[in-house]
Amino acid sequence: MKIRILGHRVRLRLTQSEVEKIGLNESVTEHTNFGVGQLTYTLETHAEGPSVLTSFEDSTIRISVLQTEAKTWADSDQVGIQTPSDARPFVLIEKDFKCLTVREGEDESDMYLNPNTVC
């Protein structure tokens, strides 16, 4: 799972196996170690309530998606799930596509085939 943060916008991109886990109501977690501390970000599911929930506590970004939406997303060609555009933070969760140009050192074996044919 990759994370990109810009201002109040958070974007998560997941590989095929990570999307499969979310569709099965399992969580996906990554860590970034800064030497003196660690940033953790987790995507999980919840049974009822809003489509997407967010929290930040103890250096952990936690994003949770409604189970029924996660299952639909995982089992379809739907690319992403997002919060309303005026939400703070705005969250976009997407399937990660292979790049159209080769990037040395990048393992794209578990990414989705890119539907585009040109950049």
Beta content comes to: 35-45%
**Largest sheet, strands/sense/barrel:** 4 strands, mixed
Give the neighbour order of strands across the main sheet.
1-2-8-7
* Rg result: 15 Å
Which structural class should the secondary elements be placed in?
A: mainly beta
Q: Write down the domain tally.
A: 1
Portion of residues within helices: 10-25%
Can you give the mean pLDDT?
A: 90
The DSSP helix count reads: 2
Distance between the termini: 22 Å
Number of β-strand runs: 8
| Overall CATH class | Alpha Beta
Low-confidence stretches: none
What sequence of helices (H) and strands (E) makes up the elements? EEHEEEEHEE
> What general form does the structure show?
globular
Keywords:
single chain; Gyrase A, domain 2; 4-stranded mixed beta sheet; mainly beta; 8 strands; 119 residues
Polypeptide structure, described:
- This protein is mainly β and 119 residues long.
- The two termini are 22 Å apart.
- The mean pLDDT is 90.
- Helix 1 runs antiparallel to helix 2 (67-74).
- It has one domain: 2-Layer Sandwich (Gyrase A, domain 2).
- The longest helix has 8 residues, at 16-23.
- A 4-stranded mixed sheet has the order 1-2-8-7.
- It contains 2 helices and 8 strands, in the order ββαββββαββ.
